[in-house]
Amino acid sequence: MVFGELIVWYLFLGGTAAGSFAVFSAIDLHTAFSHANDPRLARMPRGCRGRRACSMAQRRVVATGYAIAFTMLVVGMLCLLADLGRPEAFYLLFLYPTSSFVSIGTFVLTLFAACLALSLAESALVLGPAWERAALAAKAVGEILAIAVMVYTGLLLENVIAVDLWRSAWLPVLFLLSALSCGCAVALIGVCLCESRAGSLPWIRGLSLADAAIIVLEAIAALMCAITVNAASDDRPFDALLSGDQAWVFWLGFVGCGILAPLAIETSALLARRNHASGIVAVMAALILVGGFSLRFVLVNAGVQTAV
Questions:
Q1: What does each C-alpha distance from 187 to 20, 102, 181, 285, 300 come to in angstroms?
Q2: Residues 171, 176, 181, 183: is their CA dihedral positive or negative?
Q3: Cβ pair 276, 265 in contact under 8 A
C-alpha cells in the first residue's frame, strides 16, 4: 500500500469522524439510560422518550456533530478510494475478503458508516419508535466500531514492517487518544455553532475537562511511542521527528497546536472556574484539529522518507 497525501487525509478524517461519533453517541446513550426510569418519561408514549429525554440544546449540538462527523467520514473514504489507484475495484474487497488490515478495515468502516448515518437521521429527523430504538442500538454498536476505526488507523501503520518509525505498540494508542481529542474538538465546535449561553456552559466545561485528560494521556502515549521506537532500532527513527526535516511540523503542529496550547487554555478555564468565550473555545478546537492532522502528516511523511 502506497502512503501518499490522500492517506494522511483519510487517517485524519476517518479518525476524527470516529472520535466525534464516540463522543456524541456516549452522550446520547448516557442520556437515554439515565432517563430510563424517570417517572415523567414513563408516562409519555414510548416513541417520545428518546427525543424528550434530550434538551433542545443537546439535540441541536448532537445533530450538528453527527453531520460534521458524517461529512468527514465520507470525504475520508473518498480520499481512501482515490488513493487505491483503481477506486472502481473497491467492491472486490467485499467479494473477496481476506485477513489483511485493509480488508478488515473496509468492513469495519462500512458498518461504522451505516451506524453513523442512522444516528444522524435519528437526530435530525422525527422518526417513529422503531427507528428510534434502531438508532439507539446503532449508537451502542457504533461506539465499539468507532473505537475499532480509531485503533485501526494506527494498526495500519504499525504493521508496515519496512518502516521502523511505525513499529510501536503505542502507535495505535496514540492514534486512539488523538482521535478522541479531535472528537472533543468537533463537539466543542458544535456547541459554538449552536450556542445558547445557558445550555452551552455545562457542555463546554465537561468537554474541556474530558479533553484535557485525553491530551495528557496523548502526550504520555507520544512519549512512550518515541521511547519504544528508538529503543527497537539503532537508527533511532523517532529522532527524525524531533530534529529532522519534519521537526517543525511535529513541534509547532502537534506539540504546540495539539498539546500545549489547548491544554493551557483548558487548564486556565478550569482553574478560573469559568468558561472562555465561544470564540476562544472555537479557536482552541481548531488548534486541536490542526494538531491531530499534523501528527498524522509528520508520521506518514517521516516514515516514508526513512523507509526510502
A1: 7, 29, 10, 9, 27
A2: positive
A3: yes
Q: Give me the CATH number covering residue 227.
A: 1.20.1630.10
Alpha carbon distance 125, 253 (integer Å): 38
Each residue's pLDDT, cut to its tens digit, for the chain (308 residues) gives 556 788 899 899 999 999 999 999 998 888 887 755 444 433 433 333 444 445 677 778 888 899 999 999 999 988 877 776 665 556 665 565 566 666 777 788 889 999 999 999 888 877 777 888 888 999 999 999 999 999 988 888 877 767 888 888 999 999 999 999 999 999 999 888 876 555 666 778 888 899 999 999 999 999 999 999 988 887 888 888 888 788 899 999 999 999 999 999 988 888 877 777 778 889 999 999 999 999 999 998 888 776 55
All 3 cell numbers of residue 101?
A: 488490515
| Enclosing domain of residue 31 | 5-307
Q: Compute the distance between CA of residue 88 and CA of residue 153 in angstroms, rounded to an integer.
A: 23
Nearest to 116 by CA among 148, 140, 138: 138
Give the burial class of 232: count Cβ atoms within 10 A of its Cβ; 0-12 exposed, 13-18 middle, 19 or more buried: middle
- In whole angstroms, give the CA distance from residue 50 to residue 193: 23
Query: What is the number of domains present in the chain?
Result: 1
Contact 267, 211 (CB under 8 A): no
CB 281 within 8 A of CB 188: yes
Instruction: Locate 141 and state its grid cell.
Output: 454498536
Identify the residue whose cell numbers are 485501526.
152
pTM beyond 0.85: yes
Q: How many CA atoms lie within 13 A of 76 on its CB side?
A: 24
Residue 200: which of 287, 269, 276 has the closest Cα? 276
